Amino acid sequence: MKKGRYTIARRTTQLSILLLFISGNVFGWNVLRGNLSSAKIMNAIPLSDPLAVLQNLFTGHIAASDLFIGAAIVLLFYAILGGRAFCAWVCPINIITDAAAGLRRSLPSVAISSWDFSRSARYWVIGISLILSGILEIAAYESINPIGMMHRGIMYGFGTGWTYLLAIFFFDMFGVKNGFCGHLCPVGGLYAIIGRYGLLRVGYNLQQCSMCMKCLEVCPEPQVLSIVGTLSSSVRSGECINCGRCVEVCDDNAVNFCNIYSDKLKH
Ligand code: SF4
Ligand code: SF4
Question: Is there a contact between 55 and 129 (Cβ–Cβ < 8 Å)?
């Protein structure tokens, strides 16, 4: 149980958020209404996806003030918590990509491709989405955003949208390791930019580490764990999704969550 405590907590959070959205639709509950691009808590507090709002800005159409306030609340929340906590704890696509990554680890190496490309591609996708939004006058990435597609599918039925989600699953499982979330998704990319200022960090203690490297095996963004085997410190990169998988698999208790201030005191 201790091994999977963060994974269980993450799945519970992800599914609870989806259930709250569904209950809003089915029973008219006002706890959480809308979708993962734009929602309201208790019919009062707006929440908006900052990337969707940015794209709307680039279309040249004035967005409602609620959208800006919602984006500011979300930015502030994730700036404090650690930007990509959204990916690990809220986004439903993470359930698909985690499953693909888990199955990929169990496959023989001949069954999977070792092809890889830069993890910075997601920042280029942000730029291209914004430029296209300006040219086409629509929020360009939103029309292909699998997060919205999965959310709509769960709420109203999938139609052909499931083929897109299946393609992401197979791309991650047989193609590029952590291909979609770790390389391409601009939503995660934007949260990674905010995340480098987050207070919640993963801390690493070199003295307790037996160099088993299990943390690097399970981490969906292993480049953020470059400190492992070199120095006691905390993860500085905003690309860490705060999933806690490294903490769960570490038998030496060398990896743990910390906040940036306790980390500064320690080192
Ligand atoms: S990278 Fe994108 S799709 Fe993946 S979990 Fe984060 S927001 Fe969701
Ligand atoms: S460093 Fe740990 S918490 Fe961060 S992404 Fe990797 S496994 Fe998850």
Answer: yes
Give the ligand at the shortest distance from the Cα of 203: 2
Give distance in angstroms: CA of 82 to centre of ligand 1: 14
Same domain (yes/no): 113, 133: yes
Where are the alpha helices (H) located in the chain, listed in sequence order?
Answer: 5-27, 50-59, 65-81, 85-89, 93-106, 121-136, 146-156, 161-170, 179, 186-195, 214-218, 245-249, 260-266
CA 182 to ligand 1: nearest atom:
1
The answer on 55 and 136 residing in a single domain is yes
Atom of ligand 2 nearest to the CA of 245: 7
Which residues constitute the domain of residue 206?
199-266
Give the pLDDT mean for 131-156: 93
Indicate whether 143 and 206 sit together in one domain.
no
- Same domain, yes or no: 95 and 183: yes
The residue behind tokens 């996806």 is 49
Q: Are residues 25 and 146 in the same domain?
A: yes
pLDDT of residue 265 exceeding 50: no
Q: Could you tell me if 107 and 100 are in contact, meaning their C-beta atoms sit under 8 angstroms apart?
A: no
Out of 148-152, 165-169, 178-182, 194-198, which region has the weakest mean confidence (pLDDT)? Answer: 194-198
CATH label of the domain that carries residue 247:
3.30.70
Q: Is 198 left (phi over 0), alpha (psi -120 to 50) or beta?
A: beta
Same domain for 225 and 127, yes or no, is: no
Mean pLDDT of 49-75: 91
Q: Does 251 lie in the same domain as 124? A: no
Ligand 1 geometric centre to CA of 188 (Å):
5
Q: In the structure encoding, which two tokens stand for residue 104, read together? A: 């990929």
State how far the alpha carbon of 3 is from the alpha carbons of 162, 249, 251, 253, in Å.
31, 6, 9, 12
